[in-house]
Amino acid sequence: MSLEGIRERIERDPFARHLGIELLELSEGHSKVALTVGEGMLNFAGIPHGGVIFSLADAAFAAASNSHGQLSVALNVSISFLAAAPLGARLYAEATEENLGRRTALYRLAVTAEDGTLIALCQGTVYRTSRTVLELPGA
Amino acid sequence: MSLEGIRERIERDPFARHLGIELLELSEGHSKVALTVGEGMLNFAGIPHGGVIFSLADAAFAAASNSHGQLSVALNVSISFLAAAPLGARLYAEATEENLGRRTALYRLAVTAEDGTLIALCQGTVYRTSRTVLELPGA
Amino acid sequence: MSLEGIRERIERDPFARHLGIELLELSEGHSKVALTVGEGMLNFAGIPHGGVIFSLADAAFAAASNSHGQLSVALNVSISFLAAAPLGARLYAEATEENLGRRTALYRLAVTAEDGTLIALCQGTVYRTSRTVLELPGA
Amino acid sequence: MSLEGIRERIERDPFARHLGIELLELSEGHSKVALTVGEGMLNFAGIPHGGVIFSLADAAFAAASNSHGQLSVALNVSISFLAAAPLGARLYAEATEENLGRRTALYRLAVTAEDGTLIALCQGTVYRTSRTVLELPGA
Question: What is the value of ipTM here, to two decimals?
């Protein structure tokens, strides 16, 4: 399956689109995504909601883990929150493949600000199903 | 600080409101929240996005960990995804305090479906700051 | 496969024996183990080493996750350290099955002191292989 | 406080000595340790016990997080087990500082075999106390 077909399906992810997450880079085992923190993405303390930071990391995770064409589902993610970011900040999440097994794979997910400040860091494991991304309904 | 004042601030959380998350229960060290899975909350595989599930758990986490009046910020959350849920499903997240220290506290966050099926389970740690929730701007 | 055969194999675990870990309870999806903190189990700050606390939790995890007879291997464990314990303390770890899937399963692992104080709390996921515990060499 | 004084205290860690863990490298925010898998370190399935792998990672974690002289205690570690290693294998754990805050710090802990194979990968958070490593009793 071509990376183009995979990219196309990933880009149609409804929740990622809803948050305005953009897929900047996609290659086998790697991805980079970005989002701009809007007013509706803050928490009650006035900083970006943990769910928004996680969603951005998760978007990178899904892209990288499905990049081989084998449909992958998240089993576990451990996220550490390191710094806040202001309203309007542009945030990036990059997924790096640490390990690719037959049935599971492990990714490092780093969320950073424009200036490189680490906002959050995650370690995530997927279960690699025996289905392919291609089997999902296309455009 | 009264639980009512804390509840009022938590309920004004912009991202939780954006997702339609409702605060059902709040007492010291405990909370329960709910959300209905809408179309914009799915991922590219057609099931609720990991970011939505996390956000629901995180809303319960924030409510319970701030319920003592001392402003708490998430340090780390480990989430395990156990089952999917269909579009339109009503999901609940319940936070239980496992440990309350002077500087940190630990919570169990369980996301369940209407029939009690466990959708996701998290363990989350907060850092308890020396500020109070009351210091946040009020209504 | 009988629980007795499984218990026998688990009790021959070399590292658990080396640390003096005892298997107190074993039933399907549940186990309880114990250990007494000896001098050689402390860390440089004079409290029980994180590796000892983890090993105790891991022993309960292995017992409970293999209790169904299907050989299970740890994929991920998230451990939170909550309190220290003195030299000579009797520590317990109890494993509770939170979820049992076909290919993975999730356990809560609680390490407590004699008086019930929570020393550490873990969430652990196993991959359930297609081999059985019985296939391991017997006594 | 000199790194030499810190190194001396870390090297007297009773449990690390008991397992034969050697401190190979120590600098501010970084450390590398090693261990040889002995017969008493296996689990009931005949591979290195999860507790041994964790203990090695934890030794690197303790060394790196205390390297600044401020006494640090582990709050949380998430460990992913990626590959087994045979009896007699030489294993290494390297700790890298991902973030250093005033009250908490985050480390990446990688356990590898002689040939570089990733055996386990962890993300660990410490709480940085207001005591110093120097306050611990010396030689």
Answer: 0.96
